[in-house]
C-alpha cells in the first residue's frame, strides 16, 4: 500500500489546520455518501419522506463546500504550503467540488423519486437503479477510505470500478429504450428512471475524479483523462 506521510511542522497550528481540512473533507464525503444511499432508497421504495430529506440536506452540502474553500484559501494565504502539504490543500479544494456535484446528482435523483411516487407498480428500471446505486455507493466508500489512508491502490480500484458503472448504464439504457418503444404509455415514467440512471453514472464519474485527486496527492501525478492502463503504467514508474 502506498501512503503519503505528511511532515510535522514547527508550527503545531499548521498541523492542526491541515488535519482539520482532511477531517472536514471526510465529513462532507460521509454526508454525500448517505445522500446517495437515501436517494436510491427513495427511488426503490417510492418513499417521498426520504426524498424530501435528501433535498433539504443538499443545502448543507453547498454550505460545506463554501466553508472548505474558504478554509483552504486561508491555509494557502497564511501558511504558504509546499510539496505534499500544498498537494493536500489542492486535493481538498478539488475534492469538495466533486462532492458538491455528487450532492447535486443525489438531489436530482430525489426529485425523480418524487415524480415517480405515484407511478404504477412493475415499471422496469428500478432494479437497475438499485444495482447501479449500490455500485456508486461502494465507489464512494472506497474513495473516501483511499483519501483517509492516502492509499493509491484503492484509488486505482475506484477508477477501474467506474468502467463497470458505465457498462451497467449503457445496458440499462438499451433496456429502457426498448421498453418505451413497446409501451409508449410508459415514456414519461421511464424518462424519470433514465435521468436517475444518468445521475448515478455521473456520480461514478465524480468518484473517479476524486480517486485521481488522491493519486495526485500521494504520487504527485496528474492522471486526469488517462486510461486505466496509462494510470497503471505511470504508477509503476514511481
Strand-residue fraction? Answer: under 5%
Task: Kindly report how far apart the N and C termini lie.
Answer: 13 Å
Fraction of residues in H or I helices: over 70%
The CATH architecture would be Up-down Bundle
Helix/strand-derived category reads mainly alpha
- CATH fold-level label: Methane Monooxygenase Hydroxylase, Chain G, domain 1
Domain PhoU: 26-112, 130-214
Family: Belongs to the PhoU family.
Protein name: Phosphate-specific transport system accessory protein PhoU
Subcellular location: Cytoplasm
Please tag this protein with its features.
238 residues, mainly alpha, Methane Monooxygenase Hydroxylase, Chain G, domain 1, 83% helix, 0% strand, globular
Describe the structure.
The chain is mostly helical and 238 residues long. It has one domain: Methane Monooxygenase Hydroxylase, Chain G, domain 1 (Up-down Bundle), CATH 1.20.58. Helices cover 83% and strands 0% of the residues. The longest helix is centred in the N-terminal third of the chain and has 34 residues, at 12-45. The radius of gyration is 19 Å and the shape is globular. The model has no long low-confidence stretch (mean pLDDT 90).
Amino acid at each position: 500500500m502506498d501512503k503519503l506521510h505528511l511532515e510535522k511542522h514547527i508550527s503545531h497550528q499548521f498541523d492542526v489546520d491541515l488535519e482539520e481540512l482532511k477531517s472536514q473533507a471526510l465529513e462532507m464525503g460521509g454526508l454525500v455518501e448517505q445522500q446517495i444511499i437515501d436517494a436510491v432508497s427513495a427511488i426503490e421504495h417510492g418513499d417521498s419522506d426520504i426524498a424530501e430529506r435528501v433535498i433539504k440536506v443538499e443545502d448543507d452540502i453547498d454550505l460545506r463546500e463554501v466553508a472548505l474553500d474558504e478554509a483552504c484559501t486561508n491555509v494557502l494565504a497564511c501558511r504558504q504550503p509546499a510539496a505534499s502539504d500544498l498537494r493536500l490543500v489542492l486535493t481538498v479544494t478539488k475534492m469538495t467540488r466533486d462532492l458538491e456535484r455528487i450532492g447535486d446528482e443525489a438531489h436530482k435523483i430525489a426529485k425523480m423519486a418524487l415524480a415517480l411516487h405515484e407511478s404504477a407498480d412493475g415499471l422496469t428500471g428500478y432494479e437497475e437503479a438499485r444495482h447501479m446505486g449500490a455500485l456508486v455507493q461502494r465507489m464512494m466508500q472506497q474513495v473516501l477510505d483511499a483519501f483517509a489512508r492516502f492509499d493509491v491502490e484503492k484509488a486505482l480500484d475506484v477508477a477501474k470500478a467506474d468502467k463497470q458503472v458505465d457498462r451497467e448504464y449503457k445496458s440499462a439504457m438499451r433496456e429502457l429504450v426498448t421498453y418505451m418503444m413497446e409501451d409508449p404509455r410508459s415514456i414519461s415514467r421511464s424518462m424519470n428512471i433514465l435521468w436517475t440512471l444518468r445521475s448515478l453514472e455521473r456520480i461514478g464519474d465524480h468518484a473517479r475524479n476524486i480517486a485521481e485527486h488522491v493519486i495526485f496527492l500521494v504520487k504527485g501525478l496528474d492522471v486526469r483523462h488517462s486510461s486505466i492502463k496509462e494510470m497503471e503504467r505511470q504508477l509503476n514508474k514511481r
